């Protein structure tokens, strides 16, 4: 009786796994989830696990670990810098496709999806463009046409090869900006007005009818006051709702997930709630640039484990909160880390007063950190019956 009961439970759960397409090919070997990569575990949920890729590191033959882990551990890749406008068109009219093409080819060889990053952003613009606008040799009308051409050229080149495009990045100010009331900020809003957002999505859609088109931003992991004047998540939510209401082809909201252990941190349910609210607008969601940095105090720099350990633990907990929220909300299509190793992270170069670092899931010697193990266990333990297959929206026309 006992045995029969066990057998029938096993049969039901195998059937459930099969129905959900989650039975891994075992070829006779018992399936051991603890031995799987992040990417393989993500696939059980239909969730892509990605990383930002530094092409120079990928090409550095003296550092084979970087390429090995990029290929083995992830099912999605994002160019950390190679698809930004200044990288693609450093000289007006002369595109440098090499590094971006290389990443797209690498992804194909390794059966990975590509998140395209980024079409419209106020940073890392080519100098010829910003100086031309500043000295008046590029008019507003010409600027708008240059943007249309850029989006069309880049999206067309990678048509069918890029899964999700970050069409517009970081268009909204922060409460610490001046004025503090949230507003559309930066080069594009300043020169073209906020109408550039709708234009950009429409131009991207015209160039690739199938790619999922995302708005991407930081500090939108959870809602705050609910007042769009000081709650950035609410501002972005209202913006996306407005764009959808106008029929703008926006398919997703990317929440970057740049967190720090020194801040008050979110709990999983606050993040789930935010993802669900965006989902209710009919869009996909994703974590697009996750890392969790810490201050490198004198003690941390001196190797004091009493200062290092709590930071590694807090970092792991934050990585895990975003992963659990993503697993729990079916619109969340991918979870991308912004570099996987402390050897290649934007954090130390960016935050130097006080210095910050320790932001990724592997240390400088490519050893997996607690954060790696925690998100892996999240992926593993959210196994059957708690598998929620993803729901991908139809790209909007
Ligand atoms: O990681 C990128 C770093 O190498 C660049 O120097 C920096 C320049 O602004 O951009 C970093 O990536 C950013 C991403 O493109 C958009 N969101 C914030 C990321 C970290 O700054």
TrEMBL record:
Keyword set, alphabetical order: Carbohydrate metabolism, Glycosidase, Hydrolase, Polysaccharide degradation, Signal, Xylan degradation
Pfam entry (one): Glyco_hydro_10
Record has Disulfide bond as a keyword: no
Positions of transmembrane segments: none
Catalytic activity: Endohydrolysis of (1->4)-beta-D-xylosidic linkages in xylans
Domain of life: Bacteria
Top-level EC class: hydrolase
Signal peptide (residue range): 1-27
MF terms (GO), sorted A to Z: endo-1,4-beta-xylanase activity
InterPro entries: GH (IPR017853), GH10 (IPR044846), GH10_dom (IPR001000)
Sequence ranges assigned to domain GH10 in this UniProt record: 52-378
GO biological process, one term: xylan catabolic process
EC number per UniProt: 3.2.1.8
Family recorded in the similarity comment: Belongs to the glycosyl hydrolase 10 (cellulase F) family.
PANTHER family: BETA-XYLANASE, GLYCOSYL HYDROLASE
Protein name (Swiss-Prot/TrEMBL): Beta-xylanase
Originating organism: Micromonospora sonchi
């Amino acid at each position: 009786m006992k045995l029969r009961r066990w057998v029938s439970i096993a049969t039901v759960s195998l059937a459930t796994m099969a129905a959900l397409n989650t039975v891994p090919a075992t070829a006779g070997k018992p399936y051991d989830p603890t031995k799987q990569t992040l990417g393989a575990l993500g696939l059980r949920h239909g969730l892509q696990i990605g990383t930002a890729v530094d092409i120079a590191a990928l090409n550095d033959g003296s550092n084979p670990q970087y390429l090995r882990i990029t290929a083995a551990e992830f099912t999605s890749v994002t160019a950390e810098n190679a698809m930004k406008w200044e990288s693609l068109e450093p000289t007006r009219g002369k595109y440098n496709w090499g590094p971006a093409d290389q990443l797209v080819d690498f992804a194909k060889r390794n059966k990975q999806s590509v998140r395209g990053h980024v079409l419209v952003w106020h940073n890392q613009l080519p100098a010829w463009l910003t100086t031309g606008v500043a000295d008046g040799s590029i008019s507003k009308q010409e600027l708008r046409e240059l943007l249309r051409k850029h989006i069309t050229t880049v999206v067309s080149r990678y048509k069918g090869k890029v899964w999700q495009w970050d069409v517009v990045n970081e268009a909204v100010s922060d409460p610490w900006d001046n004025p503090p009331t949230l507003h559309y900020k930066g080069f594009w809003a300043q020169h073209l007005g906020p109408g550039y957002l709708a234009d950009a999505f429409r131009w991207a859609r015209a160039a690739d009818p199938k790619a999922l088109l995302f708005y991407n931003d930081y500090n939108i992991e959870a809602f705050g006051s609910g007042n769009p004047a000081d709650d950035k998540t609410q501002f972005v939510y209202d913006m996306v709702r407005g764009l959808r209401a106008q029929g703008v082809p926006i398919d997703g909201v990317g929440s970057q997930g740049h967190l720090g252990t020194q801040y008050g941190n979110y709990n999983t349910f606050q993040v789930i709630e935010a993802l669900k609210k965006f989902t209710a607008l009919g869009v996909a969601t994703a974590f697009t640039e996750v890392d969790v940095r810490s201050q490198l105090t004198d003690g941390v720099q001196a190797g004091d484990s009493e200062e290092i350990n709590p930071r590694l633990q807090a970092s792991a907990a934050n990585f895990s909160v975003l992963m659990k929220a993503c697993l729990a909300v079916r619109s969340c299509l991918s979870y991308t880390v912004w570099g996987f190793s402390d050897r290649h992270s934007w954090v130390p170069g960016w935050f130097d007063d006080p210095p910050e670092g320790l932001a990724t899931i592997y240390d400088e010697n490519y050893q997996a950190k607690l954060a790696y193990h925690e998100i892996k266990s999240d992926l593993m333990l959210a196994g059957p019956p708690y598998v929620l297959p993803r729901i991908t929206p139809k790209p909007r026309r």
